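Objective 1.3, modelling of assemblies. Example input:
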Amino acid sequence: MTIKKYFMAGIAAALTLAVAAPVQAQDYPSRDITFIVPFNPGGSSDPLSRAFAAQLEKTLKGNINVENRAGGSATIGTNLVVTAAPDGYTIGLGDSAALIYQPMVNKNLEYNSTDDYTVITKLADVPGMLVVKADAKWNTFEEFLEDARKNPGKLRAGVSGVRSISDLVVQQLNRAADVDIATVPFTGGGGEALLAVMGGRIEAAIGYGGNTIAQVNAGKLKVLAVFAKGDYPPVPDAISVPDDAGFAAYIPASYTIIAPKDLPKDVLDKLAAASKEAIETPEMKEFAAKSGFVLDPKGPDDARAELKDLSVEMTGLLKWMDEKEAKAGK
Amino acid sequence: MTVASIQKRRSYLVIGGVGIFLAAGYLSLSLQLPMGHLNSPGAAIFPLIAGSLLLIGSISAVWEGWRMEPTETAELPIGDDLWRLLALIAALIGYLIALSWLGQLIASILFCIVLMKMLSKLSLVGIVIRSVIMMVPVYYIFVHLLGLPMPRGIFL
Amino acid sequence: MTAVEGLGFGLSVVFTLQNLLAALIGAFLGTAIGVLPGLGPVAGVALLLPITFSLDPTAGLIMMAGIYYGSQYGSSTTAILINMPGESTSVMTCIDGYKLTKKGRAGGVLSIVALGSFIGGTVSVVGVMLFSPIMADFGILFGPAEFFALTAGGLLILSRISGGSFAAGILPMALGLVISTIGEEPVTAQNRFTFGFNNMRQGIELVALVVGLYGVAEIMDMVEKLRRQMKPQPVSLREMLPTREEMRRSWAPYGRGTIIGFVFGMLPGPSATLSSFASYKLEKSVSKYRHEIGEGAIEGVAGPETANNAAATSGMAPLLALGIPFGATTALMLAALMVHGIEPGPLLLTNHPDIFWGVIASMLIGNVMLLVLNIPLISIWVSLLRIPYHIFLPMILVLVVIGSYSVRNSMLDVYLLLILSGVGYILRKFDFQLAPMVVGFVLGPLMEKHMREALFMSLGDISVFYTSPIAVGIWIAVLLIVTIGLQRALLERVFGIKIRTPAFDNAD
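Predicted structure (tokens):
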């Protein structure tokens, strides 16, 4: 054989080995795991991912590299996870809007439904809060809603983008309570909408997490209601829109951990168990309490079912919004 | 240095012409985006403004080129200078293609060898040694120390 | 917090090992970038941007600010020693600086310049310190309509006074706006001009744009011309002492240069460059030694070099106080803040006082460091000029590629880098302005956002743009500045009055 043939044979052998070598769960993880965050460092999703990855390193006994691949409403990073090799060495943060809403409006994605990737675990929710200026005339959610009823289209709520999660939750309220609260998109981050509320330029805003809670505690804003079932520990006194007011407006910003589809069963089991353990560590709990996240360690099947429910709700909501816009001649 | 002087007005006419062409294409694409309404302005509004400005800028470049004195000149490279420039561009393109296949380390050493060969009269051995001495630390610092996920190529 | 308390707080922020190191490294790299031909402050900051991502935001910004004003120091060195300005800000310095070098005064002139830069920078920092909290308080009153007026107006002014013809400013500005619209727009998440490529949704990366336009395009130019490298004369420490005469004649230009630089720095435009032109012209008309300027007078060096450092520093005020960059470098700093998830704007002072005051205090420290770095180490900087092209160019190009890749870990950005270098090369060749393109690219999304926000918020009432007194005031000011040429022509023709506006005539 010539040298060239040796070379080709070597490559062929290496390829065969690479393909044939089965992923063995007992020695997983045997090398570094890449954790893709579909957001920029900064914002609230990146610290959440890094806090989780740090705990997962301990419970999985492996090394995890966090990589930021932002852009395209988080679809660019999600695409990368979905198309990676299903060996458990590429996992990522799944953002509910990128996983569910984006495929509805964008056909150029590598995934269409929850069947196109593996859901390892649910990580956390961040419920939206309806906030108004601290000295605003409304003291309760009922008063605000009453005003919205009397002045359709006149009350304005700051959201983070048209048809973003925060817009959708207002639309859920509009639909369920039969009101017309206008939404104003502030795309430079949540602080801008809060600034506009504090400056009296708009009436209300949908706020999330630590930044909003800090302004509430500083006495600049007050929370009229939380768009989540059950209690939201950071603002224990605020009423829950679905539970107390009885309107089905509850979509939270929610995060899951995802991997490519066809992940070997034993690897998935190991990852799911380690993830659950990681989410339940005291460090993670402390981080969540500080940043306004509600941890929610649902297993693979429950987490997938929740995403499917969200998909159904969003489909109905978007249809309602489209019809309303068509009717209004918008 | 070898240069050819061309009338600057001609370059303004060409750049303006290309600009008008670009602006027209851009504006027609913008028109396909949702316009929205006055109370919910859509994605098309701003591109239409930007495209119109590009059109105005391009037309004014043509206008200025038209009225410019033919004595105003700009210099374009010819001969060796042009070839050196084209070789640089080719080397850069080669580097970028090699980057995905061969990875940062090998691609950058090859690129460095080609460029040095172009710019100096050193012997090939000297060039290779210098390239390796320069590029290995760069690779080490950025990929290993700073942890940048540069393409590793198919061999590493 | 008063300015003094703020400064105290800022100093407490800066005096950590990490931040001091960031200031030192920034000042050091900035000087090197200023000395090396082919890498301006803009490309330099762009290139080092990814490295600052791994630091915390305060340290990152401190380092970038260090690079920015360090490069102002460095660029004067080449101007004086080999008659080649490292940046456009030192064009004026060449005239008298090189003549003085030929008279054997290189060392003394370098010291005079270093001291002038120090004075200009330091006084300007104090100005920024006193002025930007007021500016930020004022900025809280700003809503979308006012910010729209400020961004759109600032961009218009920039593209009109950057120099060159109408088309030379407007065409690149519009091109920058057009490029900024590529990708997913944030308000409705609509994909624009992505041609079905999902990766295009993330849009064009600023670093690729800037490094391509400024850095690689300049290197193409260098390779094409293969300029003979000038070998500078070695300068010994002993020669560095300026004469008493030189010192005495420099104080007045220092003072005038500082004021001019500080004022220009807060206006939109290539303010450091413009201010050095303005200072030179001013020295030429008011200095006691005006007849010597142009023939190697110390005033012609001391004034402009003081002014450009003062301007580089005061340019930080609109960025820190309002979140609006009026130059390409400050635009990059804005981008760095946003990557760290920090919202620039009037709230920066309240939400992130550590960044606000830390950066201001670091500029004071940085200026001291630069003075220390420059006078004794001058021979090191000079030796940088002796690195041959065949070592220097491949190294820079490889770093440039790594830099643009690493911002978003994307090969797409590297390909774009190459395309944009071509665009930059062509535009420069025919005297089109690049700064409006970069600033247009950065301000474009802000303009769009504020414009659409204003309409959403007013529920579709277009009068929102012209009912606010602040917005109207801004528009009137913009109109006055943009039509300055027209006004001058009118005055001359109708009243026969001739007005001189030295700065605007032949800026780079």
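The helical segments of chain B are 8-31, 45-67, 79-119, 124-145.
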